[in-house]
Amino acid sequence: xxxxxxxxxxxxxxHFETVLAGLLPPAEVAPQRLHQAMRYAVLQGGKRxxxxxxxxxxxxxxxxxxxxxxxxxxVELIHAYSLVxxxxxxxxxxxxxRGKPTCHVQYDEATALLVGDSLQTLAFQLLAEHRLSDDASxxxxxxxxxxxxxxxxxxxxxxxxxxxxxxxxxxxPELEFMHIHKxxxxxxxxxxxxxxCGNATDAQLSRLNHFGKCVGLAFQVVDDVLDAEADTATLGxxxxxxxxxxxxxxxxxxxxxxxxxxxxxxHQDALESLAEFGGAARRLRELADFIVLRKY
Length: 296
Ligand code: GRG
Hints:
Farnesyl Diphosphate Synthase; single chain
């Protein structure tokens, strides 16, 4: 029987939450406050889009689910660390995340800094200590892939450009460069790591790489539109922050209609890059639809 997208998503997320809870250090183990704050930052919240992309890519190539879960967890831990650090006063200075006080508000700044550091290192520990591929060199490539996507030539670099761009007017290609790094790199890595868990071929990886580039950028374009149009309660984070912080976005550069058009075009390109996979790419198609059509 064919499982609809909502049931597929619910099942994977429910199982994934349990896996994540088991991979994080227990709250009662010392240093308790740090471990509690790590769990606070990761558990019970978030759309879990990146793990779902990992599971969908893994399914596409017939990977074993437990392997994909470690890969998905490593990406989600990096994502959670980036949100904790991004919310701190030295960066975006926000008080609300996933409908709750941000980590440094709930705990304190030093703890939030250490939460980010510890989640990041735990992510790489997971990739290093669990068997994710029968081929050791492929597993090493996966570790390198996540490191490159997270570091100064990936997400952290994109964040540096973002911080430097406040109050400046960027061109569309410059904005695209920033977002391909800040948001797109980790989304692309989530997809490729899932595919690596199932020994994907170079041709498959190349198609998925293109798909990841398109949905990664589409995710950000939609994020810019939602920041301008949705309310704080729906988003679970402060709405309208980009304008308040005088940040260049697709909406400020192109206007809402053109930004929506860009998201539609990226959606189309993403779907085209899956054409050769046929029905096996169903979940990735559905996730691309979700990313572009989401309201939060
Ligand atoms: C601090 C190194 C470092 C990087 C921060 C990801 C990031 C880079 C900053 C977050 C700022 C932001 C709002 C980016 C826009 C796109 C984005 C990553 C949104 C949050 O991701 P969601 O919507 O969040 O998947 P949930 O809570 O659903 O997991």
